[in-house]
């Protein structure tokens, strides 16, 4: 009820004002119209904002729900895509390669002629008619020889019987203690046969009543010693002798030699200072 009254009052005022000052009345009316339009615009804008906010909330909820659905469907979509892709690849491969055929029969063994045709190109040609040297032949053949792996170690043998606890030096000391009369040719196994072979006949039938007596001597040697001499000649041309140095037997031709006088022994090694060589020999 108030708005119509105000309008009437406003119209009456405008009417009276228009009689007095038409221009002022027109400006007053325009200002009132602008104020009304501004208020209407504020109301409309507030309503629009409310609707937009409500629509945005609804849109956000709808988007979130759809996004949740898509996330749930994503694994299934990925599996379907991979299955389709795998089927397509298998189909393409089958088109290119074709289906595998049945296994064929084994072919016949190669003949000698085929083998020769295969081997002949591998044999190098001889230039200028020269025969290849042994070194070249070995160099050609060796790569063709298969490598042989070393065999496995054999089983260890049975342990031998225990030997004498005496050392060589102790044995010589015991022999010296026996003296010349205590050591016989028969005491040395095979000595009689060896002397017979070296002397060219039986020692029992030679003049003088048999073979010579065994003799033992010990000679002092040093680093400057090159020769030593026995008291008597050594039988069998200087071969019927047994020399020991520091408990080890010396080999004829390797460690010593005997001169044509059958008494001079030349050493083929350098002994240590203040040492001895034990000599057991048969007198010539």
Shape: elongated
Largest beta-sheet details: 4 strands, antiparallel
Give the end-to-end Cα distance, rounded to a whole number of Å. Answer: 176 Å
Rg, nearest Å: 65 Å
Report strand %.
5-15%
Helical percentage = 40-55%
Write the layout of secondary structure elements.
Elements (H helix, E strand, L loop, with lengths): L1 H19 L1 H76 L14 H8 L14 H8 L26 H11 L12 H9 L14 E8 L5 E3 L5 H4 L2 E5 L2 E3 L5 E3 L5 E4 L7 E8 L2
Antiparallel strand pairs: 1-7, 2-6, 3-4, 3-7, 5-6
What this model shows, in words?
The protein has 284 residues and is of the alpha+beta class. Among the domains are: 76 residues, no CATH class; 115 residues, no CATH class. The strands form 2 sheets. The chain has a 4-stranded antiparallel sheet with strand order 1-7-3-4. The chain has a 3-stranded antiparallel sheet with strand order 2-6-5, with no helix packed on it. It is elongated, with a radius of gyration of 65 Å. The protein starts with a helix and ends with a strand.
Please name the defining characteristics of this protein.
alpha+beta, 12% strand, four-stranded antiparallel beta sheet, single chain, 284 residues
